[in-house]
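Thread title: Can someone regenerate the structure for this chain?

I was given the following input by a collaborator and told the matching structure tokens would be attached. They weren't. Posting the sequence so someone can regenerate them.
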Amino acid sequence: MAEPRRLGPRKTKRIATIELSRLDLLIKGELSIEDLDDEEIRRMQLRNSAGDFRGRAPLYVPRDMALAFRQEHFRRFQKEMAELVPDAIKAIKEQLNSRHLAPGDATRLRAAELVLERNFGKVTQNVDQHVVVDKGKSFEDFVGEAIIDVEAEDDEPTIE
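Best answer:
Regenerated them for you:
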């Protein structure tokens, strides 16, 4: 009789898995723009699996992707500026209540002013202008008076 077949240890097959790149995950929607770090947003380039930037930056970025990167960059900037508002108000209060100016106070006050302008807009300034209009003149007459005769002023002084 034939010897019974001996079974050896069972061999397992390994299935190779391909790890999706961060770009693939972003395209599939499993990774969002908000999940990217500041440098990836600024460069419009995603980090590789090792966590760094290898190779050159992409020559072309799809328009909608570039707009999403720019929008996220601006959103993060606005958030950081909004976080500075309490510090700016505190700096202005300190300067209002101080009787003495220290070196750098003007710079600090200007920085606080810029933070407030960025968050709430600049204060409007009214400009008063007194204009007298002669009803007998046409628009062409006003324009003719406003235009400077360039040919008369074109004579350059010569150095002798």
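The CA atoms of residues 95 and 105 lie 8 Å apart.
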